[in-house]
Write a structure and sequence with these properties.
Strand order of the largest sheet: 5-12-11-8-7
Structural class: alpha+beta
Shape: globular
Number of helices: 14
Helix content: 25-40%
Strand content: 15-25%
């Protein structure tokens, strides 16, 4: 008798009827935004269509769903766009002139902004020892975005940029993110630069922060830099000589990388997949991102700059927004400890666990065929990093002080750090932290920590939808995959070919009565003792794929139904594994029949 609005959220339990006449120009199959209407006595609330986003099947709408679900907004308010008019690169004035220094940007081929440039050279330190001088120049966003302006309030509301496979929702308008704050080659750009001096062991000996005018020498990509270094060929396709630029960068990287290993930073190098989008906006495949030394080089330079920024603010007793990462909780560590014991590995007990101890386990696990499984379990035990004014250090990086400084173009936290540095070190040009911001710093930290989580959720759900849309015409096909999650309602499996994550519902596993063992990350058949553990290889059939909701449903097939154990993993040592506190039975599968009046037989493992 009219239209229904089907929610794009796969957890939604029912559709919403559209009140006749309230569909506007919406038609069957349109992707729309509906507003729930007030009503009494109706079981299902009615909705009014307030916006039409696109047609069903249009790949350009996939990111829009995830964007709207998480409260993100692509378009900037008119007053914010208007505020970018008339902005221009400042004159040199009292800025340091670094335009003759051959700073280079190194990013991915698909990077959408270039806000950091680097330079390194050997030098003599103040104490007479040999060391290195580094320059990390970051786009001077604080010069353009002043506290409590329209630009600032919108950037704070967004908190950070959000990256989808086919687009980016930037924190700042394009006039800044893609122009004035993009460090393009051969163009003058305003920067906040960190001069850093380190010794041969990678220790920060001296620092100096300045406002500068720079002129990037070249825009390089990771693969290009790595190939130049590996092949000793330091000339770019357009004839630029990099022979005095790239080798010192790698020399400093070797020093910083050794220092990282010495202090015991957590070494979780898990693969990252990249969605390939064709010219029509359709996912055409997926590939694993290659992690080169060139990637690690930039990462180590940025970490050092972040440490220096935190130190520079602490030394002046200035307000600082720290990036903090708490150590894992004891309960999570206990769970990890019991799990890895099944592999013959051990983790020391005690509250003062260090990342180096975890690295020791990871190094031993690297010799095993299922090292990725142990890495995943350890990753899931970690606390989430957040922004805070109280410093508790960064557990994962094994650093006592750490602040985000290197990406104010896409993270509001970095912009706050820049502003505090401007005030604390008396940098010319204004744009420092305001009294109002300083008073609300804790509140802002909570807000931007939440916006970061929202963006991560939106990015994940968009990838799920793109992948599900890619699999729609492959329903019925069989795939190999690994169990990536074990829950009381089923198994999550990551497909080897596409990296797609799908659910095997417990109700489809009707061959036994399965018990969920949380500590062992496994489903265990009560009668046949068939075991499905995290990380095990399985063969599955795709039964459902929905690009709108991002839902992918699988079922076990072939040999995988005969068990999916992990070679080398020992059986649980504890007795009574099926106690109520530690495991939950599968209520969707019926147990074998019992004789009337007799207690059910429970066999211990």
């Amino acid at each position: 008798n009219g239209y229904l609005l089907m929610p794009t959220d796969k957890k939604a339990k029912y559709d919403f009827p559209v009140k006749p006449g309230d569909e506007g120009e919406g038609q069957d199959g349109d992707l729309v935004v509906g507003e729930i209407q007030p009503a009494r006595g109706l079981k299902h609330k009615q909705v009014r269509i307030i916006e039409i986003l696109g047609r069903e099947g249009d790949p350009k709408t996939i990111s829009l769903i995830s964007l709207h679900e998480n409260g993100l907004r692509e378009e900037f308010p008119q007053q914010v766009i208007k505020a970018t008019k008339g902005l221009k690169v400042p004159e040199l004035g009292k800025r340091q002139d670094l335009r003759s220094t051959p700073l280079v940007t190194i990013d991915g081929a698909d990077a959408r902004d270039f806000d950091d440039a680097v330079f390194a050279e050997a030098c003599d330190l103040p104490n007479g020892e040999e060391g290195y001088h580094l320059i990390i120049a970051i786009a001077d966003v604080s010069f353009y975005v002043r506290p409590e302006s329209d630009l600032d309030l919108e950037a704070q509301r967004r908190g950070n940029s959000t990256y989808f496979p086919d687009r980016v929702v930037p924190m700042l308008p394009e006039a800044l993110s893609n122009d004035l704050c993009s460090l393009r080659p051969d163009e003058d750009r305003a920067a906040l630069a960190a001069h850093l001096w380190i010794d041969k062991s990678g220790q920060l000996i001296k620092y100096k922060f300045v406002r500068a005018l720079i002129r990037s020498y070249a825009r390089l990509i990771y693969e290009q830099v790595q190939a130049a270094y590996d092949n000793d060929n330091f000339e770019t396709p357009d004839g630029r000589d990099l022979s005095t630029i790239i080798p010192p960068l790698y020399e400093v990287f070797g020093v910083l990388d050794a220092a990282r290993k010495k202090r015991g930073a957590l070494d979780l190098d898990l693969p990252e997949r990249q969605i390939i989008i064709d010219e029509n906006g359709v996912m055409s495949g997926v590939k694993q991102r290659i992690r080169l030394d060139a990637h690690k080089l930039i990462e180590e330079f940025m970490i050092l700059a972040n440490v220096a920024a935190a130190k520079a603010l602490e030394d002046k007793r200035a307000p600082c927004v720290y990036r903090v990462h708490d150590k894992p909780g004891m309960d999570k560590l206990d769970s990890v400890r019991e799990f890895i014991e099944s592999f013959g590995l051990s983790l020391p007990k005690g509250e003062n666990i260090k990342p180096a101890k975890i690295n020791h386990v990871l190094a031993k696990a690297a010799q095993m065929p299922f090292s990725h499984l142990i890495s995943q379990v350890i990753l899931r035990s970690q606390s989430q990093a957040v922004y805070a004014t109280d410093n508790i250090g960064h557990f994962g990086l094994a650093l006592t002080k750490y602040a985000h400084f290197t990406s104010p173009i896409r993270r509001y936290a970095d912009l706050l750090v820049h502003r505090s540095l401007v005030n604390a070190h008396g940098l010319p040009g204004g744009g420092g932290l305001s009294d109002g911001e300083e008073a609300r710093l804790n509140e802002i930290c909570e807000h931007i920590s939440q916006t970061e989580r929202n963006s991560m959720s939106a990015e994940r759900s968009a990838v799920d939808r793109f992948t599900a849309a890619y699999l729609v015409d492959k329903v019925g096909a069989e795939f190999n995959g690994k169990i990536s999650g074990v829950t009381r309602f089923g198994l999550f499996v990551t497909l080897d070919e596409s990296g797609a994550d799908g659910l095997i519902p417990m109700k489809s596993m009707s061959d036994d009565f399965y018990i969920h063992d949380e500590e062992m990350h496994a489903l265990i058949g009560r009668r046949r003792k068939k075991i499905y553990r995290l990380g095990a290889q399985v063969t599955v059939r795709l039964t459902e794929a929905d690009g709108i909701t991002g839902s992918t449903v699988l079922e076990l097939t072939g040999e995988s139904k005969n068990g999916a154990d992990i070679p080398g993993m020992q059986s649980p040592k504890k007795k009574g594994r099926f106690n109520k506190e530690k495991s939950r039975p599968n209520r969707s599968s019926k147990p074998h029949k019992q004789s009337k009046g007799k207690k059910p037989f429970r066999k211990k493992t």
